[in-house]
């Protein structure tokens, strides 16, 4: 596993996470593509399957260098906005030419859009070990309107921590959301790391 991957998984707070990703920005794609990174395509295909159509704007949370936005675009989504902690990652994402808007956000700060502004959210590898905490699932779900959908992934490292699937259960078990899709599969096959992809709908 690369030193940056190790650093990301070991990051203890948002400041440390931002620094890792800022420093990693220029080599990030080469490293993870070398490992066969397939989760963006898996998530985009899953969201497309359950979305009412490709015309609704998608908010790509934790968009990084824009690989997730590229996958959403290739899946047929036409309007994609992205947010991320790392300004350096956002610079790389901007060069992809697939985003309408890109915004840097601060960890723990309110997301810069109104509740219900988006009916589709994507969080590809953005919640979990080395990324946003489990509570971010609650933040995103509260922003969705009734019938809104969120696709996200949890990798093997994250699935070892009960808080993340626990946050999902808080929505599913009481009927506040419906689990439309869950599929285990490859994440970074080059290092034998897998991930589960989920699509949930707010009730």
TrEMBL record:
InterPro entries: Methyltransf_11, SAM-dependent_MTases_sf. Keywords: Methyltransferase, S-adenosyl-L-methionine, Transferase, Ubiquinone. Residues 59-152 form the Methyltransferase type domain. One of its GO terms (molecular function) is S-adenosylmethionine-dependent methyltransferase activity. This is Bifunctional 3-demethylubiquinone-9 3-methyltransferase/ 2-octaprenyl-6-hydroxy phenol methylase. One of its GO terms (biological process) is methylation. Pfam families: Methyltransf_11.
């Amino acid at each position: 596993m690369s030193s940056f991957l190790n650093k990301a998984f070991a990051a203890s707070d948002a400041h440390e996470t931002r620094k890792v990703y800022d420093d990693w920005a220029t080599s990030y794609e080469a490293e993870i593509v070398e490992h066969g990174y397939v989760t963006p395509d898996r998530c985009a295909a899953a969201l497309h399957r359950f979305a009412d159509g490709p015309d609704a704007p998608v908010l790509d949370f934790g968009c990084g260098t824009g690989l997730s936005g590229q996958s959403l675009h290739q899946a047929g989504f036409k309007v994609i906005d992205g947010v991320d902690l790392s300004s350096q990652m956002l610079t790389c994402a901007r060069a992809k030419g697939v985003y309408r808007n890109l915004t840097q956000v601060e960890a723990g700060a309110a997301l810069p859009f109104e509740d219900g502004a988006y009916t589709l959210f994507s969080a590809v590898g953005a919640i979990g070990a080395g990324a946003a905490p489990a509570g971010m699932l609650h933040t995103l779900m509260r922003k969705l309107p009734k019938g809104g959908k969120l696709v996200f992934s949890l990798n093997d490292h994250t699935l070892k921590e009960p808080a993340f699937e626990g946050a999902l259960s808080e929505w599913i078990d009481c009927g506040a959301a419906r689990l439309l899709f869950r599929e285990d599969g490859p994440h970074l096959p080059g290092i034998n790391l897998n991930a589960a992809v989920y699509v949930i709908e707010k009730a």
